[in-house]
Amino acid sequence: MANSDNSNARLKYIGPKDLGNLILPTFCPRCFWYERHYGPFPARFPGIFTVLDGVSKKSVYRSFQTRKKLPDWLNLPSVKRRVSLDEIGAVQNFQNRKYLIALHKRSGWYLRGAPDSVFELENGTLHIVDFKTARFTSKQDELYPLYEVQLNGYLLLSSKYPVSKLSLVYCEPKQELKDDIKFNLEFEAKIIDVDLKPNIIPELLMKAREIVDLEKPPEAIPNCHGTCYYIDKIIDNEIKKKES
User: Fold this and answer.
1) What is the Cα–Cα distance from 58 to 5, expressed in whole angstroms?
2) Per DSSP, what are the bridge partners of residue 168?
3) Could you give the percent of the chain with pLDDT greater than 90?
4) Nearest to 35 by CA among 6, 60, 59
5) How far apart are CA 62 and CA 58, in angstroms?
6) Would you kindly state where each structural domain of the chain is located, as residue ranges?
């Protein structure tokens, strides 16, 4: 099968969050195969959440720049300082952004990702944090295995320091506006600790490699509504065109 440069990159690099999808009960190996070989369909995820996550990261950055400590809304114990990616692992510049990167030789994957914030604790270990702009609901709890993989991927990428703590920080919008005249929406931080399970990452990297190395796409999960759904729609339309 002929692959473009972009598709070759998709077969070479994988992010911790993409890897986390493999552990969910809704994971479809056929979708994964198509997305890695040909690229995903355009996402419908609202861009506002990416903006809000960026606000959280900038707030932490500015607080350390101006006050040398965490912002008041983020209550994490024993934080000594904010740590840059260059200090904690091998770094690659990609699309005007820095990423941690490491090669898993057995699978041939380059694991590449950038945690939202990394802090050095008073005991010299790292605390890695990822921000989520959402309420911690039962639906978010169902996604916990994905986030567990994501943060443990960052743990493995942080090769220069020991990591002792992983956390999800949910930035939850308050129910009421502070000022009815101005649209000033406030948020509260809910911190969820994540178990350290670095051994799950190599297993998932091998599973991902086994899927993409198949000559043909594997079977889909029943009633898949991901990429499979759109692929089948395209195939059905092409069949109808030929029959008409």
Assistant:
1) 33
2) 130, 192
3) 63
4) 6
5) 6
6) 15-243
| Residue length of the chain | 244
Structure tokens at 234: 């395209």
Give, rounded to a whole angstrom, the gap between the first and last alpha carbons of the chain: 30
The H helix count followed by the E strand count for the chain is 9, 9
Residue 195: which of 158, 164, 169 has the closest Cα? 164
Task: Name the CATH architecture for the domain at 15-243.
Answer: Alpha-Beta Complex (3.90)
Name the one residue in this structure whose structure tokens are 């008041």: 72
Give the integer Cα–Cα distance in Å for 84 and 158: 11
**Spatial separation of the C-alpha atoms in residues 82 and 63, rounded to whole Å:** 10
In this structure, are residues 147 and 155 in contact, taking their beta carbons and an 8 Å threshold? no
Three-state DSSP class for 127?
Answer: strand
Predicted confidence (pLDDT) per residue in 184-220, tens digit: 667 888 999 999 999 999 999 999 999 999 999 999 9
CA atoms within 13 A on the CB side of 212: 26
Strands, DSSP E only, in the chain? 13-14, 79-82, 91-94, 97-104, 109-113, 117-121, 126-132, 163-173, 187-194
Q: Over the chain, what is the mean pLDDT? A: 88
What pLDDT score was predicted for residue 3? Answer: 42
pTM for the predicted model, two decimal places:
0.87
Residue 108 identity (one-letter amino acid): G
Cα dihedral 21, 116, 85, 205, rounded to 10, equals -10
Phi and psi at residue 152, to the nearest 5°: -70, -25
Per-residue 3-state assignment (H helix, E strand, C coil) for 212-230: HCCCCCCCCCCCCCCHHHH
